[in-house]
Amino acid sequence: MIDSSDFRTQKMPLSHGTGHMPVLGFGTLIPDAAGTISATRDALEAGFRHFDCAERYRNEREVGQALQAGRAAGGIAREAIFVTSKLWNTNHRPERVEPAFEASLSRLGLNYLDLYLSHTPFAFQPGDDQDPRDQNGNLLYDRGVTLLDTWRAMESLVDRGKCRAIGLSDIGLNELLPICESARIKPAVVQVESHPYLPETELLEFCKKNDIVFLAFAPLGHGLSPGPLEDPVVSAIAARVGKTPAQVLLAWAVQRGTALLTTPRTAARARENFNISALPEEALDEINRIQTRQRFNEVVKTGSPGFIPQGR
Ligand SMILES: NC(=O)c1ccc[n+]([C@@H]2O[C@H](COP(=O)([O-])OP(=O)(O)OC[C@H]3O[C@@H](n4cnc5c(N)ncnc54)[C@H](OP(=O)(O)O)[C@@H]3O)[C@@H](O)[C@H]2O)c1
To answer: How far apart are CA 51 and CA 67, in angstroms?
Structure first.
C-alpha cells in the first residue's frame, strides 16, 4: 500500500518540457479578496505546492501576494511551487493571447507560469467585458476564431519560454481530439469536473494513453449538498477506514490516476485535504460501482461559469 507521504509529494510528468505537476492542487476560485489571501496562505502552509488560478477568478493579485508572503515566510523557492493560470474566453483571438498571459503573470507577480490553460473551448466576443451579452441576456460568442487558432498562439508562449506547459480546460473528447491531431505542442493537461458521480472514464483512458495529465476539479462535487461528500458509500468507507469523506474522495481521485484541485477555505480543512493516504482496493471498487451520475458545473456546455463571484 502507498503511504500518505507518497500522496503529498507525488508528481505527474508533463508531456512537453521538463515540468512535473504535484497531484494535489489547491484551487483559487474564492469569492472574496481576504478569503483568497488567507486560504492560499493556509494551503501553502499545509503543504500544497500546486496552485490553480485564472484571470476570470479576478483574484490573481491576491493569490500572488499570498504566495509571495508565504514563500518568504517558509523559505520556499519559486521552483518548488507549480502555478497555473487560464486564458479567458474573451481573449481567444491570437493577438489577445500574449497580452492576456502577460497580464496574469504581472498580477501574480511571477516571471513564468508552469502551466497555461485555455479556460474553456468557447470564444466570447473579444473585449474587456468578461461576460459579453446582448440585450436579451444571451452570451455573445466570437465565431471568427477557432480553438486551434488560439492553441497556436499558446504554443508560441511555450516557444518563448514564458510558460512551461499548455493545456485545455472544460473540454470533451470531441474537441480535444482535433487539437491533439493538429497541435505542434500536444496538450499536457486537461482540466475537467470529475468525481464519483462524473468519472469521465473515457476521457481519463484517452489521457492516460496519450500522456496527458487528467486534472480533476470539483473532486468533492463543489461541496454541494446532496453530493458525493454525503454519498452513503463514501461515508461508510470513511467510517470504516478512519478518514473523512473528503479524504476518501480525494484519495480515490489520486488512486485512479488523476491529479486534483480542491478548495479548502480554512487551515484545518487545508490540512485535512492535504493529508490523504491510500484506500484499500475494495474501497476503490465500491466507489467505482456508485451509479449516481451528476454534473455540478454547466460551464462545459456554454463557456459561462457556474461558480464565479459576481460584482468584483
Ligand atoms: N476549469 C473550470 O472551469 C473550473 C471550474 C470550477 C473550479 N475549478 C478549479 O477547481 C478548484 C476546485 O474547486 P471546487 O469547488 O471544484 O473544489 P471542491 O474541493 O470540490 O469543493 C470546494 C467546496 O468543498 C468544501 N470543502 C472543502 N474541503 C472540505 C472538507 N474537507 N470537508 C467538507 N467540505 C469541504 C468547501 O467548503 P467551504 O467553502 O465551506 O470551505 C467548498 O465549498 C477551483 O478553486 C478552481 O481552481 C475550475
So the answer is: 9
